[in-house]
Specification:
alpha+beta; Rossmann fold; 8-stranded antiparallel β-sheet; 8-stranded mixed β-sheet; 16 helices; 19 strands; 54% helix; extended
């Protein structure tokens, strides 16, 4: 997707139709839009998502009040005012014009009534003529850049750290898979599963009694599995709900006055507990890796001892003649002369004696190999000792961390006990509510574990039934054909699942490496971004060879989020060139960022300003004058292809006017409105070299 232009009409701050905002691409791929707070930067960012998905960012207030106030005020009662945004973009060598429109009007009581929005689309043909699309516009937009991914390309920079929050990590996983094209494989597996069910239904009708019985048992087990899977979804939703409840109650407890700092202490201890638990997980994973890669060596002791016994026996018998080489003996016989000067003529006694050494020299290569193996055995025995030392060290480390965890949990329990018995009843209630939530979360987690075990057992039962069904003799042609089709379908499902697993593992590893590179380029901290198998992104610190979870600051999470988005774009672009999976087109990815520098210090501002123009094929940045200061302007100037100013007209008689100087000219950021209304105008910055 390459964005070409955008026009707004009566959309929030923008009265009437704005000039066409043409968006930069190519070598100078960056469009900068300047505006003070309240001038309409967030409105422009949300105008993209409103047109394409009818979605808004968290910072976009009063989502239902889209129509410009002045336009409605000036309209006659009962007469509708149109509010619309139009975007032109290119994709796969086709040009699209997308327009979303809604209307509002004042009734006789001067109340504003809003209508439903409508989406329109036209596609330009090769002859330049525009025509309606062959399918619904939502479907086309969803295929080009799916709705689930839009927040990664249109976002509020000051809230970008939300992307890597704990409660959004599952969304990262799903979005990453969709970008990769894994969803295509998921759909294929689902469709094949449905086809298999249909074939098994046919087989139940035509199969022999034993086959029908087995299929009936299998169907009953599958129904049990479906119930467990549905319950799994319900539990996930309940856990998410309780996490939000816990977060809200914890915030209220932290904000409560008094309590002698106990809520803050409680929060600090909870963070420590999370960090210690993560250390235990990392240490256990390290122990598992060590056992899986080197654990086999401890079982070689008997084999090594047997080898040494055989080796020593051969040497004692003289069957391993050290220094005697077959090649050396062959040279003596060829020259017919011994090293002592005696002739070795054919059939001579001396030659016969030397030829006997040939038999002994045959084992020369064996001797060399045996010596090398002996040296390797010494190394293995040394590594076995080191392996046990490492295991003991890891176990001691785990025990130490567990002891620390126990101590911190005891401290936490003491703090919670004080809060439960605190004189202030409100604080008591909040802590008791947190206790109730913890109990419920614990119950849900235990149910999750129990259900997972049941699902695993049911899967094994189904696998066993499938084998029994395969063994059934199919006497009739239709039965045999149905069974072959079922077997082929199951084989296809298993192969697709294996392909999906390998692709995910390979892509996840490549993506993690790129995230680490980008994060390292921007951040001066030693922290390392890591993905788990579900694409959940965390920041860790390596201390003493162990990874420990880092409680990242807002700035670090902003950088981590930018690194994630940039890496997604880089890797999917490269991935799509090497693979044929049908995912979103990755030739061009636009990024629209509102206030990306807000809470960052000067060093990070400079590094991000230098990096973000290289993240995507197109970049639209909306900034205030203070955000567009020295270091940001210096780093981004060479990438600017288009530049605009949002000029806010204030109806306040004592408004303080403001301006920004760009390209040697002054452009008004805030000025006195010529009427009693507030509205924003779009001014294009004129550069000769654009």
């Amino acid at each position: 997707m390459k964005l070409i232009s955008i026009i707004l009409c009566n959309f929030r701050q923008f009265y009437g139709k704005t000039p066409e905002i043409v968006l930069a691409s190519g070598n100078r791929n960056t469009t900068i839009i300047h505006g003070n707070n309240g001038a309409g930067k967030t409105t422009i960012m949300n105008s993209f998502t409103w047109v394409l998905y009818e979605k808004f960012s968290a910072a976009f207030a009063a989502e239902t009040q889209l129509v410009n106030k002045r336009a409605i005020t000036e309209s006659k009662p009962g007469k509708a005012v149109a509010c619309w945004v139009e975007i032109v973009f290119e994709h796969d060598h086709k040009r699209y014009q997308v327009k979303r429109l809604c209307r509002a009007s004042r009734n006789e009581e001067n109340e504003i009534e809003h209508g439903q929005s409508q989406l329109y689309m036209q596609i330009a043909g090769d002859d330049g003529r525009w025509s309606p699309p062959p399918e619904h516009p939502d479907d086309i937009v969803g295929r080009i850049l799916p709705e689930s991914l839009h927040r990664y390309f249109f976002f509020d920079g000051e809230r970008i750290e939300y992307i890597v929050r704990d409660d959004r990590k599952s969304e990262i996983a799903e979005a990453t898979k969709e970008l990769l094209g894994i969803e295509v494989l998921n759909r294929s597996v689902r469709h094949l599963g449905q086809a298999k069910k249909s074939l098994e239904t046919d087989l139940r009708l035509i199969g022999n009694p034993e086959t029908k019985k087995l299929l009936k048992e299998k169907n009953q087990i599958e129904q049990e599995m479906n119930k467990l899977l549905e319950r799994k979804k319900e539990i996930e939703e309940e856990l998410e709900h309780h996490r939000e409840l816990k977060k809200g109650v914890s915030s209220r407890l932290l904000e409560s006055k008094g309590a002698e700092g106990l809520p803050q202490q409680r929060e600090k201890l909870n963070v420590q507990i999370l960090s210690l638990k993560e250390q235990i997980v990392q240490a256990n994973n390290g122990l598992k890796r060590g056992i899986s890669t080197r654990g086999y060596m401890v079982f070689l002791s008997e084999a090594i001892a047997k080898f040494r016994e055989i080796f020593s026996g051969l040497k004692e018998k003289g069957e391993l003649q050290i220094g005697i080489k077959r090649q050396f003996v062959e040279q003596l016989l060829e020259k017919e002369c011994c090293i002592c000067g005696a002739e070795l003529a054919i059939a001579s006694p001396g030659r016969k004696l030397v030829e006997k050494w040939m038999e002994k020299a045959v084992v020369g290569d064996v001797e060399e190999t045996a010596i090398r193996i002996s040296v390797q055995m010494d190394e293995v025995e040394k590594q076995v000792v080191e392996f046990w030392e490492e295991v003991d060290r890891q176990k001691a480390n785990i025990e130490q961390v567990r002891y620390q965890l126990s101590q911190v949990e005891n401290e936490l329990e003491e703090v919670q006990k004080k809060l439960r018995n605190y004189p202030d009843e409100d604080i008591q209630k909040l802590q008791k509510r947190l206790d109730e939530i913890e109990v419920k979360v614990g119950d849900l987690n235990r149910e999750t574990g129990s259900n997972a075990l049941q699902l695993e057992n049911l899967k094994k039962e189904i696998k066993a039934l499938d084998k029994q069904i395969d063994k059934q003799q199919m006497n009739e042609l239709k039965q045999a054909l149905a069974q072959r089709r079922i077997t082929a379908t199951q084989d296809a499902i298993e192969r697709l699942i294996e392909v999906r697993s390998r692709l995910e593992k390979q892509f996840r590893s490549s993506l993690e490496k790129r995230v680490q590179e980008l994060f390292s380029e921007i951040s001066f901290t030693p922290y390392i971004p890591k993905f788990n198998e579900n694409y959940e992104l965390s920041l860790v610190e390596n201390t003493g060879g162990e990874d420990a979870l880092v409680a990242a600051s807002t700035g670090e999470n902003q950088i981590l989020s930018l690194a994630f988005i940039g890496s997604i774009i880089d890797e999917v672009r490269a991935w799509s060139q090497r693979n044929t999976l049908m995912g979103p087109d990755s030739s061009t990815f636009p990024i629209v960022m509102d206030s990306p520098f807000g809470s960052l210090d000067e060093i990070y501002r400079r590094r991000i300003a230098k990096t973000i123009p290289q993240l995507a094929n197109q970049l639209i940045v909306l900034v205030t004058k203070t955000q567009w200061r020295g270091e940001v302007a210096e780093e981004m100037t060479d990438y600017i292809g288009r530049e605009y100013v949002l000029s806010y007209n204030s109806p306040k008689p004592d408004c303080k006017e403001d301006a920004i100087e760009l390209g040697g000219e002054s452009y008004a950021l805030v000025r006195r409105s010529p009427n009693e209304f507030e509205y924003t105008e779009v001014l294009e910055v004129d550069y000769d070299d654009f």
